[in-house]
Task: inverse folding
């Protein structure tokens, strides 16, 4: 069997948004260590401005935040860049919020607390899909 | 939030369930409560384990998680206390009080209001332990541990507690002032810092001490003078802030005042407190994410040692990829100028193993030393040239320092940065030990780890459950009974068949723990986590593969046990970065867990095993678990309230005269007999299988010495003999997984209470044997023989005269089945033992004889994986 051709590795750009600093503090170095170019925010307006200015490949966003919440943020980044892969993380996981996230085009929905290895794995899967899709076109 | 009224209301409600003079609560209801307690107990321990897990570093959690977990915990504990209320007919009001106290402390902590432990304004060093940082601050709690637990020499003294600090601050309106200044800093940190610092410090230095603190300070100084036999010439007054010397070192951030005459202790106290608000210290806290209400400062006062030589050491200094050593710096005189870098020091590198010989030394020119002045205070003195250039440590001193260094590192499981001093008599004193901020490069070592672990022999891997991550390296020590714990060597790895909360006693001395059976949600696991002790439970074969004295490395992160010492693994762990520990939520969760997981109620037979002694949720849970089992046993012993269940008689050739109440039955079975194989209860079936399968119910008259009338009794108890009606009714209350069996056999009484299901944590077995027909000596001998049998079968045994109690908890189902069969055999075997035990030393051989005979019956009940 022939192996599918793997794309040239390039630094993927990742945006992390969570209004709790501890989450950002944990995720940022973990993804940096894994080879990503990471921008992290605790304020959704600032994050949106940064994304509009220079869209990331992947977005990890909290759901429940002051001001612009996660669903609205998801809507806005998808409007700017339809191909962006979005992962929603939340401490208030319910079936409804999960459904809504998927309906709005989230790639996955992860309930807090989660293991670092798990979120790295989700991003890996998202990346694989984005990679496949790029190849298909 | 539940108000106190709400709690009282609920107690009242519970009380109404059992009004005086009315019929007791039906047994079925009580039994359901008992089962509910078991389930809840399990849920609570799992929740505790989950919360503890979050501190392990693998998880990303936020504040919302902490709040939700605390809320569920409180809910479960409250319901647990309520369940016991019904079971023990409301004799546990103090438990509600204990619950409410802990719940309120947690609520305060979540709201940013610290609960200051209710202590005297000062505490002597001899009363301090590592877990008292809340009251004594980080540094002095740790010094107390060094002095009182590790038995290391620490200068005598006392600490002014956080409670006294809080009272001092409150009396002078300082919290409000600091809050206002903090707002200024939030708005403009750089611009406002110098002025805010000066304002706060001036107010602190001008403040007055509350009367209670002045009095406490005078009393503490008098007590210190009493211990010394004279008033101390001068004191070192030192900061001991919350979190100081913990994950965050605060090294050099806070002030110490040395050479303080006792009369000036109060002024020195204020200077140290003010030291928390120097621009540097304030900024340090802010940059590290500390909230202002976390700036809590206990202040320690210690006798100044008349030092000849002082210095610092790093317990772990990596030299090359393969080599490692202990780094010691030293100079003449007092320690303070050495630590602040004002004096040049000698440098020594010594080996990390006894005899701690020096690997290299560099001797500095040290023309001056700071010394105590006879009239108080300190002054520099000039040293003669030959002393200035002489090494200030001999090999014997280095050996002394090496031993202390290894003790400290083993205990704290991290490299330590230690300050020490030696007096004119050559006595070493430890002044401080804090975790070393290690600037290693773990990534650089990864290759070396791969190579090292590939070469090392894997003893077993992936077996059991990791309770606490980490690496333990050292000598195995197999513990088979309580007595072994007394000899537990410092720094060994504990190997045991099953988990036991009693191991908490030696946990400060251990490197790690491996057990054959046990649950990560159990009591012991929670304590091991508290000690951050690398622990794997349920390995299945640790005691079979390992012997006392084996050198091993336990990697409780990858869950692998290697033969020999794999140093690279430890190095990797020591150099791992742990920035997450700097975050507020992490510290908050740690503080909250202090109110949840520590287990103070370890021994159910200790006088302190009472509701009023419950200081944590874990204590409450443990107390209730023990109490619930005891209640049910006592209840069925007294045979109260069982008339609502219908009993059926067991059909058997043995003269057991056993009636069975089936709690799971639908009541349709009307009386009549039931065959053993049709019994719905697994524990009872297994017990009877042991009884009949072993042939232990010996019906032949045993050979007895003359004068004993046991021979006639054994005939009387023969099959279908005329004595059967004398047996009275024996009773078993059962459900599918439960059995409470009461047997009056002739003149002795056996009680067995067993719960055996798939959930290992719920499983428990209680065996009680009492009485007999022969003289007391023989009955006692029989008790000892039964005790020996039970002990060898892993039961925890107590013997009081002719009473034997054996307990076993939290073993898996196959093991439970085997134990039940063994007890079945024992029921038959013990009937005549007191007669057969004619001589004192017979106890031993009958125990062996029994265990050999029963092996065939218990073997097929065992897990085949453990008995290939």
Result:
């Amino acid at each position: 069997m022939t192996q599918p051709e793997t794309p040239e590795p390039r630094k993927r750009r990742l945006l992390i948004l969570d209004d709790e600093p501890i989450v950002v503090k944990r995720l940022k170095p973990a993804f940096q260590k894994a080879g990503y170019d990471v921008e992290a925010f605790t304020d959704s307006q600032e994050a949106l401005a940064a994304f509009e200015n220079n869209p990331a490949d992947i977005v990890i966003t909290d759901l429940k935040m002051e001001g612009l919440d996660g669903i609205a943020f998801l809507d806005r980044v998808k409007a700017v860049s339809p191909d962006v892969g979005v992962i929603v993380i939340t401490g208030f996981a319910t079936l409804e919020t999960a459904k809504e996230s998927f309906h709005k085009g989230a790639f996955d929905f992860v309930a807090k607390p989660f293991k670092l290895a798990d979120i790295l794995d989700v991003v890996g899967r998202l990346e694989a899909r984005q990679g496949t899709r790029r190849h298909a076109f | 939030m539940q108000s106190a009224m709400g709690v009282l209301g609920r107690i009242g409600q519970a009380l109404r369930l059992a009004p005086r003079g009315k019929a007791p609560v039906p047994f079925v209801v009580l039994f359901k409560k008992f089962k509910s307690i078991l389930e809840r107990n399990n849920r609570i321990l799992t929740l505790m384990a989950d919360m503890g897990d979050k501190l392990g570093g693998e998880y990303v959690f936020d504040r919302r998680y902490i709040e939700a977990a605390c809320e569920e915990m409180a809910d479960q504990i409250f319901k647990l206390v309520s369940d016991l209320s019904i079971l023990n007919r409301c004799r546990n009001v103090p438990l509600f009080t204990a619950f409410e106290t802990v719940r309120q402390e947690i609520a305060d902590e979540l709201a940013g209001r610290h609960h200051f432990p209710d202590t005297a304004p000062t505490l002597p060093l001899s009363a301090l332990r590592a877990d008292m940082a809340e009251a004594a601050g980080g540094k002095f709690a740790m010094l107390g541990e060094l002095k009182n637990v590790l038995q290391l020499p620490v200068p005598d003294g006392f600490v002014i507690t956080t409670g006294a600090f809080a009272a001092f601050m409150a009396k002078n309106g300082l919290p409000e002032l600091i809050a206002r200044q903090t707002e200024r800093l939030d708005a403009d940190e750089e611009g406002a810092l110098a002025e805010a610092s000066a304002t706060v410090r001036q107010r602190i230095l001008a403040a007055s001490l509350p009367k209670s603190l002045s009095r406490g300070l005078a009393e503490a100084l008098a007590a210190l003078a009493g211990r010394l036999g004279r008033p101390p010439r001068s004191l070192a007054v030192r900061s001991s802030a919350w979190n100081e010397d913990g994950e965050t070192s605060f090294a050099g951030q806070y002030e110490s005042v040395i050479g303080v005459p006792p009369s000036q202790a109060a002024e020195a106290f204020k200077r140290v407190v003010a030291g928390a608000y120097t621009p540097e210290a304030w900024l340090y806290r802010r940059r590290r994410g500390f909230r202002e209400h976390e700036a809590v400062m206990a202040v320690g006062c210690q006798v100044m040692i008349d030092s000849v030589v002082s210095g610092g050491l790093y317990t772990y200094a990596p030299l090359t990829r393969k080599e490692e050593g202990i780094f010691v710096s030293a100079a003449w005189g007092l320690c303070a100028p050495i630590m602040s870098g004002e004096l040049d020091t000698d440098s020594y590198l010594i080996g990390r193993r006894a005899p701690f010989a020096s690997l290299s030394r560099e001797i500095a020119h040290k023309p001056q030393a700071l010394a105590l002045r006879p009239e108080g205070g300190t002054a520099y003195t000039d040293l003669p040239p030959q002393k200035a250039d002489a090494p200030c440590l001999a090999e014997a001193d280095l050996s002394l320092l090496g031993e202390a260094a290894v003790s400290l590192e083993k205990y704290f499981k991290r490299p330590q940065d230690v300050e020490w001093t030696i007096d004119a008599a050559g006595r070493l004193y430890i002044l401080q030990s804090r975790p070393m901020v290690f600037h290693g490069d773990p990534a650089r070592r990864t290759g070396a780890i791969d190579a090292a672990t590939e070469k090392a022999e894997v003893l077993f891997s992936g077996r059991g459950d990791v309770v606490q991550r980490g690496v333990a390296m050292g000598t195995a020590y197999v513990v088979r009974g309580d007595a072994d714990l007394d000899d537990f060597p410092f720094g060994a790895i504990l190997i045991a068949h099953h988990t036991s909360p009693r191991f908490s006693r030696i946990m400060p001395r251990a490197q790690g723990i491996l057990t054959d059976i046990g649950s990560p949600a159990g009591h012991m696991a929670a304590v091991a986590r508290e000690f951050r002790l690398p622990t794997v439970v349920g390995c299945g074969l640790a005691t079979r593969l390992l012997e006392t004295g084996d050198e091993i490395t336990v990697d409780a992160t990858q869950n692998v046990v290697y033969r020999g010492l794999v140093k690279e693994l430890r190095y990797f762990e020591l150099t791992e970065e742990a920035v997450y520990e700097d975050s507020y939520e992490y510290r908050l969760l740690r503080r909250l867990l202090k109110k949840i997981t520590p287990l103070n109620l370890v021994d159910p037979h200790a006088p302190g095993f009472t509701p009023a002694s419950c200081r944590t949720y874990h204590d409450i849970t443990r107390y209730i678990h023990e109490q619930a089992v005891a209640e049910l046993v006592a209840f069925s012993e007294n045979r109260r309230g069982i008339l609502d269940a219908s009993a059926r008689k067991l059909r058997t050739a043995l003269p057991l005269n056993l009636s069975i109440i089936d709690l799971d039955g639908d009541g349709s079975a009307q009386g009549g007999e039931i065959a053993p194989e049709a019994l719905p209860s697994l524990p009872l079936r297994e017990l009877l299988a042991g009884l009949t399968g072993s042939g232990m119910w010996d019906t032949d008259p045993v050979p007895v010495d003359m004068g004993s009338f046991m021979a006639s009794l054994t005939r009387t108890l023969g099959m279908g003999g005329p004595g059967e009606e004398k047996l009275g009714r024996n009773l078993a209350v059962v459900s599918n997984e439960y059995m409470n069996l009461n047997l009056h056999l002739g003149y002795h009484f056996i009680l067995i209470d067993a719960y055996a299901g798939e959930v290992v944590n719920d499983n428990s077995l209680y065996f009680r044997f009492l009485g007999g027909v022969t003289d007391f000596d023989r009955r006692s001998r029989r008790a000892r023989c039964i005790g020996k049998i039970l002990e060898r079968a892993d039961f925890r045994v107590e013997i009081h005269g002719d009473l034997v109690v054996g307990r076993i908890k939290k073993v898996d189902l196959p093991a439970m089945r085997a134990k039940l069969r063994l007890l079945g055999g024992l029921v038959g075997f013990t009937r005549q033992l007191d007669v057969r035990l004619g001589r004192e030393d017979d106890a031993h051989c009958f125990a062996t004889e029994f265990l050999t005979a029963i092996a065939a019956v218990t073997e097929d009940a065992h897990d085949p994986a453990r008995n290939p």
In short: Residues 132-137 of chain A have pLDDT under 50 and may be disordered.
